[in-house]
Please model this.
Amino acid sequence: MLNDPPNTRTDVSRHLPLLNALGAAGHVSQRTLAQRLDIAVSLVNRLIRELLDGGYLEVADASVRPFAYRLTSRGEEYRRDLSYRRYRSVVGDFRAVQRSIRSALQRIRTNGTERLALYGAGEIAEVVLPLARETGFHVVGVVDDDPEKQGRKWDGLTVRCPTRLDELAPDGVLITTFRHAQEIRDRLAEAEPHSVPVLEL
Model:
């Protein structure tokens, strides 16, 4: 693996997108790069200077403006290294999330909950559902407030409106969203009759 360029700690988050953009179209202005990457032109200029100084980029033709940059063989290797590190980081984060969710589910399971309904048919629920089944829950259904999701098939389940939650007869309702968790909890607490535990990860 290559060493990072000196004094650069933003290599994966800033160098990699720039290297990818230049690899796709090297003959492009710094202003256009800034717009594509949603960063300041001055930052694009600084990052390109770092990559040039590090031997990762070279100017293909200094007589043409804007300059046409191309990745050197060292730059190609650096880009592969950064891509690998980003992938490794994402996988590591995902596994950490899985471990945390699995631990929470095991704790809920030991409290006697068997029939579980999920509240929220988003990305978190996509991770929770297989882990819940693996932990021994019978996932009876999923509900979501978004009308566009309601009625859709979702991993063998049909997404329902939350007003139909009682029809699922769950032992517990697991909130599978972090953004609106308190709002959902408050709404469920006001529902009558309501005796099913509301759970969070």
In short: The chain has a mean pLDDT of 84.
